[in-house]
Amino acid sequence: xxxxxxxxxxxxxxxxxxxxxxxxxxxxxxxxxxxxxxxxxxxxxxxxxxxxxxxxxxxxxxxxxxxxxxxxxxxxxxxxxxxxxxxxxxxxxxxxxxxxxxxxxxxxxxxxxxxxxxxxxxxxxxxxxxxxxxxxxxxxxxxxxxxxxxxxxxxxxxxxxxxxxxxxxxxxxxxxxxxxxxxxxxxxxxxxxxxxxxxxxxxxxxxxxxxxxxxxxxxxxxxxxxxxxxxxxxxxxxxxxxxxxxxxxxxxxxxxxxxxxxxxxxxxxxxxxxxxxxxxxxxxxxxxxxxxxxxxxxxxxxxxxxxxxxxxxxxxxxxxxxxxxxxxxxxxxxxxxxxxxxxxxxxxxxxxxxxxxxxxxxxxxxxxxxxxxxxxxxxxxxxxxxxxxxxxxxxxxxxxxxxxxxxxxxxxxxxxxxxxxxxxxxxxxxxxxxxxxxxxxxxxxxxxxxxxxxxxx
Length: 457
Prior knowledge:
With 457 residues, the protein is of the alpha/beta class. It has helices spanning 15-24, 35-44, 61-68, 85-94, 106-113, 143-155, 172-181, 200-208, 225-228, 244-256, 282-287, 293-299, 315-331, 340-348, 354-368, 391-395, 406-420, 425-432, 436-446; strands at residues 4-9, 27-31, 49-53, 75-81, 98-102, 122-124, 162-165, 190-194, 209-210, 222-223, 233-237, 258-259, 268-269, 273-278, 302-305, 337-339, 373-374, 449-450, 454-455. It is built from 19 helices and 19 strands. α17 (406-420) crosses α19.
C-alpha cells in the first residue's frame, strides 16, 4: 500500500509534533523551510495533503488562495495560534480539512491526517427533482414503501379520512402533504395542527374557532383551523393525545361536516378532508378507555402504516444522498458526493429517530464538510451501533457515575466495543468511527487489553 505524502510549512517549534503525527498516521512528511521551497516542491510532484501555518513567514490570504487552487497541493490543513473567528472563516472558505491550534500536538495532528484515510470510492449525490423542498419528497424503493405508495395512489383523489400510523420521525406529515398535493384539493389550503403541542383549553378554540367574549381573553372573533382548511386538507397530528371531550366534538364535526365556534349558536358547513396521524397504538388506547372506538373507525376509513427507517433496507442510503443534495443546495455548498464508508456507516445505524434523525445528521454533515465529498468524520450519528444488535442489548441500561472523568468514560467505552468485536482493531475502529491508528494509540494510552490477544501492542 502506497504511503501518503504530506508537505508542510510550519514554525520550527511545531515541526516535531507534525513529524510525530505523520508517523502515527503512517504517512511520509516533507517539511519546507520557506514559501519558495513549498512551491518548488509543488512544482516537482503532487501531494495528498499540505499543512500550512497561518503564522509562518510570508503566509497571507493571497498565498493560501493560490495554494488551495493548486491541484498538486491536494487537501489543505491550516494551523493557527490560538482561536480566531477570522482563521476559522478562512479555513472554511478555502475548503480546508481542519484548522489546528498551535502549539501542535502529535495526537491531534494524527487524527487530522486520518481524515485522508481511504474511505473507498465516492457515490455521487442524487440530483434534486424540480420543486423538491424536503417536505413533500417521498424517497424509497423498498417493498415496504412500495405498499405505502400504492395506497397513496389509490386514495389520494378520494375525500375519505386517512389515519397515518408509525413511529415518530417516519414521515407522517410528508405523507399527509403528498395526499393533499395529489388530490383534487391541491389548489386549496393544507393546514396542520399538532394536537399534543397545544394545551387542551386552547385546542378547542384552535380547531373550531371562537366568538368574541366566549371566554376570558377572547377579545375578538377567531376562525378555527377547520374553517381555514375549507376546500383543502386538515392534518391532525398526534391525534392520540386529544382529550375525551374534544374527541366527542371532533366526531360530531366529522359526521355533520359543520363546525360551531366556541360561544357560538349556529353551525357552519365546511368542506374539509381530514388526515390524522399518531405514533401511539390506538387499539390499546381504546381498550384503556383513552380513545373513542367510534372516532377511530371514523378516522381510519383508510389506515396507512409507515415502516420505521431500520426496516427500509437501501432506502436509508437513498434518503442520505437525497438529504445531502438538498442541504448542499440550501446552504450553498459545492458538495457532489459521499464516500462509500460514510454511506455504510449510515446504513448500519439503528436510527431510533427515523427519517427526522437522518435528515438532521445530513444537514449537520453538509455544514461540517468543507470539501466536495462528505466523509465519515462529518457524521455525528447518535446511535451508531449496528442494527444486528439484539433487543436485549438495546434495552440494557448503559451508564457511568457522574464522578467519572471523560478519559475514564472513553476508556470504558473502547473496552466495551473491543469486547463486542472480539478484539479486532479494524472492526472496533469502524464502530467507533475513528482510524485504527488512533484506536491503537488510545488502547496503549489507557492500558487496555484486547480479548483473545492480550494487551494491545
